[in-house]
Amino acid sequence: MPIYNPPVKDARFVLDAVVELDRYSNLAGFSAASPDVVSAVLEEGGKFAAEVVFPLNQTGDAQGCIRHPDGSVTTPDGFKDAYRQFVEGGWPTLHAPVEYGGQGLPSAVATAFGEFMCSANHSFEMYHGLTSGAVNALLAKGSEELKAAYIPKLVDGTWTGTMNLTEPHCGTDLGLIKTKAVPNSDGSYAITGTKIFISAGEHDLAENIIHLVLARTPDAPEGSKGISLFVVPKFLVNADGTPGERNAVTCGSIEHKMGIHGNATCVMNYDGATGWLIGEENKGLAAMFIMMNDARLGVGLQGLAQGEIAYQNAVRYAQDRRQGRALTGPAEPGAAADPLFVHPDVRRMLMDAKALTEGLRALMLWGGLQVDLSHHAASEEDRQQADDLISLLTPVIKGYGTDKGFEIAVNCQQVYGGHGYIREWGMEQYVRDARIAMIYEGANGVQAMDLVGRKLAQNGGRAIQLFFKTVGEEVAVAKGNARIASFADALEKANGQLQAATMWLMQNGMTNPNNAGAASYHYMQIMGIVTVGLMWLRMAKAAAAKIDAGDGDRAWMEAKLVTARHYAEQIMPDAGALRRKMEGGAEAMMALPPEMFADR
Ligand SMILES: Cc1cc2nc3c(=O)[nH]c(=O)nc-3n(C[C@H](O)[C@H](O)[C@H](O)COP(=O)(O)OP(=O)(O)OC[C@H]3O[C@@H](n4cnc5c(N)ncnc54)[C@H](O)[C@@H]3O)c2cc1C
User: 25 and 31 in contact (C-beta within 8 Å)?
Assistant: First the structure.
């Protein structure tokens, strides 16, 4: 049977060492996050994830969801009761605004809980996963009436939110959207069209489901400039706030898919459903981007979460399973064979997984901090800097985080040998579940294009310059610290590769846009390596300081330094190879006509 132990100790370390929560206690949103409250959220939240949600992960995968002839959907056994406990425990409200019934805790704290939930049960987490993005979009662009009608019940989990972009002929290219929104005489709109692949589009967990839907008004301009955003509830909301008449939106079918079987991925049919405009007509994509940015950070977290649970199980298995002998002679001569743990190649996979999960955790929680600071930092300059950094790094968190999450899951499955391929051990589910995160919410290649094509150049390159300055300054300081100087050297080299790669893009991407397109994925990976490297520098610095001060669990802090060294030796050097791949440019990649690919 698979296991899951929420990594509370590591999350706590990151919140102290990298996020440095206590530095911000004077800011709005942070004052509620006293060390006691944060500890309670991590401990109790971890317990909830491990004891209530995790036991439903394998059964939910085996059972899947059922759509009934009337369009209703039944979720796997136990999901409904677990969702009730989730709501009763106040878990949906952690990071939500106080004025709408939320607890107003920092995003970094809610992110830590989100990781636990997603490791425990990716499918279950997704029923509520898009709701905070829906709340953010409504908060930023909704009228006061819409806010009052929808946000409180989305915040407390009584209702859940969905995101409706994709149509059968239109995925990445949202300019192709066909769903129509025709104005009604009362100010509402009649929404007609088909959306596909809608996560949690229909289910039996919540009293109402609030769909945020992209559609076109009759005279809208062609392409992405003619898209508007609407809120379309499953049940129309009565004047007293209760759910009333059934709206004309139904689930036409649910997909049979590779993973996340416990989450209903729905075809949603809108047949003149009543919806209300969020923000202005034809400005819907910008409004939806508020939700999408939130979702992209959440999907990056899913990558980490799947990597973490796969890692934990592989560690246990490598201790229990005995095969062969250590290359240096029997480690346990009294036994018939040594544990898998003695083999360097097994260690390679486990150490990569350890270094990446811990590094990505730091990145996710630090990302949460930037979201908070972009709203609440004391000065306009600090808010701007946090906004620049999170905007630059959102595609990296999504793209690199989910690529590595999947890679970790596959490597940890490999640790099991053939048993990793057998369902009862659970590892093949983690691989299947992790795979979707690389695809949805903007496929990772599209994230890379966003990074290279939009984010680098934004505001004259202000964000990437800030990023380079930050890395450069922290490396310079760390070089004076004997315990972490060699790590700082390695990060300096990887950062040098990133700088050279950025220069190459500036020189070659403009002259031939295919060069930028061909290089963007590699660039995103280099940036991921350096960004996680920066997180490791901070963790190593904190661990070294604790060792010097004789503070805390010394062996655990020493292990952090060893893991940082592994990251420097085994992962950071990839930056150089990736840069050389970029420099190959697009010529050979784009030279052959499609028919030559098919001529075998
Ligand atoms: C399980 C699941 C859940 C989902 N949940 C939701 C949801 O809740 N709401 C929702 O709206 N959608 C959802 N989706 C849809 C998902 O976001 C899309 O599948 C995804 O964005 C890609 O769109 P597509 O499948 O149409 O692929 P396409 O757009 O056809 O792309 C195919 C491939 O071509 C590449 N590509 C396309 N255009 C470009 C370009 N300009 N430059 C470079 N490469 C390009 C892509 O990267 C991809 O690899 C979900 C999908 C799945 C499978």
Answer: yes
Rounded to an integer, what is the distance from CA 161 to the centroid of its chain?
17
Whether 199 is in the pocket of ligand 1, judged by its Cβ within 6 Å, is: yes
Minimum-distance ligand 1 atom for the alpha carbon of 255: 1
299 pLDDT above the threshold of 90:
yes
Q: 135 with 93: CB under 8 angstroms?
A: no
Atom of ligand 1 nearest to the CA of 441: 17
Other CB atoms within 10 A of residue 269 CB: 17
pTM of the model: 0.98
Least confident range from 21-35, 221-235, 582-596: namely: 21-35
Bridge pairing between strands 243-246 and 180-183: unpaired
- Two tokens at 263? 């989450």
Protein residue whose Cα sits closest to atom 16 of ligand 1: 440
Give residue for tokens 């990558």: 303
Protein residue with least CA distance to atom 42, ligand 1:
446
Strand, helix or coil at 395? helix
List of residues 6+ apart from 374 with CB closer than 8 A: 383, 386, 387, 390
- Percent helix, strand, coil in the chain, to 5, is 60, 10, 25
Q: Cβ neighbours of residue 168 under 8 Å, at least 6 residues apart?
A: 194, 196
Distance 441 CA to ligand 1 centre (A): 7
Q: How many CB atoms lie within 10 A of CB 531?
A: 26
Strand partners, 198: 266
Q: Which residues are tagged catalytic?
A: 441
Lowest pLDDT segment from 15-24, 152-161, 241-250, 541-550: 15-24
Nearest atom (ligand 1) to Cα of 166: 11
- Whether ligand 1 lies within 6 angstroms of the CB of 257 is answered as yes
- pLDDT score for 271: 98
Which amino acid residue places its CA nearest to atom 37 of ligand 1? 172
Task: Report which of 295, 348, 341, 347 is spatially closest to residue 318, judged by C-alpha positions.
Answer: 341
To test the ligand 1 pocket, which listed residue (164, 178, 446) has its Cβ within 8 A of the most ligand atoms? 446
Q: Which of 440, 449, 520 to mutate to test the pocket of ligand 1 (most atoms within 8 A of CB)?
A: 440
Cβ of residue 265 lying under 6 Å from some atom of ligand 1: yes
Tell me the residue type at 377: A
Residue 232 bridge partners (DSSP): 211
